Amino acid sequence: MPQIPKNTRQKANNIGHPTLGNRTRGDRNIYGVSIGVICLESYFPKPSGHIKNPAGLSFPVLYHTIKGATVQKLINAPDAALRDRFITAAKDLVREGARAITSSCGFSALYQKELAAAVDVPVFASSLIQIPLVWNMTGCKAPVGVLTANSKGLTPAHFAAVGAADIPVEIQGMEDQPEFSTVILKNQRTDMDLQRIEDEVLDAARKLLARAPDTKSLVLECTDMPPYAHRIQRETGLPVFDLTTLATMAHNATTPLRYKDRFSN
């Protein structure tokens, strides 16, 4: 790729790329995109608020689906081969134009460090990467509540990979919720009762807080939960952190607004 001389003064144009005189540096295939999403292959509904439903997002995204990679595989049998396919997908997304990389499943936390080392853009493989932030935001006293698709599959290795090994967490899984388990975890059908899913997610939140009433915050590991974050927050009164809000923050960080000084002449 052609390089701009170091001794040449560069300016940023309106799409965030350096300019050289009247020329704009080119370095990607697709422009105007901030977030690249590494996707597992799944065909159940993705309502607005899900990272795989761009209609509900306020920023443009790129998707790369890893064919044959499923929720079941990532939760139950993650291995080096799957990790390498994630890395390849991340590199492809950056090459296409993504300015930051995430994934469509919070269990991708296992690959956070490897993905971040493989590309030169920010990587937030899982919403779990917010746990240290949330812990500090809420006073470092109460445990961070984690709602997850499968509590049995969420291991200390997942928390260690995102720098949260020593932070107390209270975990509640969805593996015993019939609709969620049948459709999302077991992949037994693709049709889904969205109202039942919402009720089951709320039931999981209630169970977590009944067991750990001192919890001050909730992190939604699962990317299928953000569509219901509003109701969770309304019912619990707690701040709710998920992948969609994290992706929005990453978008704002990699594509910052240009503010105009309202007091300038």
Strand neighbour order, sheet with most strands? 5-4-6-7
User: What structural class should be given to the helix and strand makeup?
Assistant: alpha/beta
What is the succession of H and E elements?
EEEEEHHEHEHEHEHHEHEH
Helical fraction = 25-40%
Q: How many distinct helices?
A: 9
CATH architecture of the largest domain: 3-Layer(aba) Sandwich
C-alpha end-to-end distance = 41 Å
Q: What is Rg? A: 20 Å
General form: globular
What does this structure look like?
With 265 residues, the chain is an alpha/beta fold. It has 2 domains: 98 residues, Rossmann fold; 115 residues, Rossmann fold. 34% of the residues lie in helices and 15% in strands. The protein has 9 helices and 11 strands. The strands form 3 sheets. A 4-stranded parallel beta sheet has the order 5-4-6-7. Strands 9-8-10-11 form a 4-stranded parallel beta sheet. It has a 3-stranded antiparallel beta sheet with strand order 1-2-3, with no helix packed on it. β10, α8 and β11 form a beta-alpha-beta unit. α7 runs parallel beside α8. The radius of gyration is 20 Å and the shape is globular. The N and C termini lie far apart (41 Å). The N terminus is likely disordered.
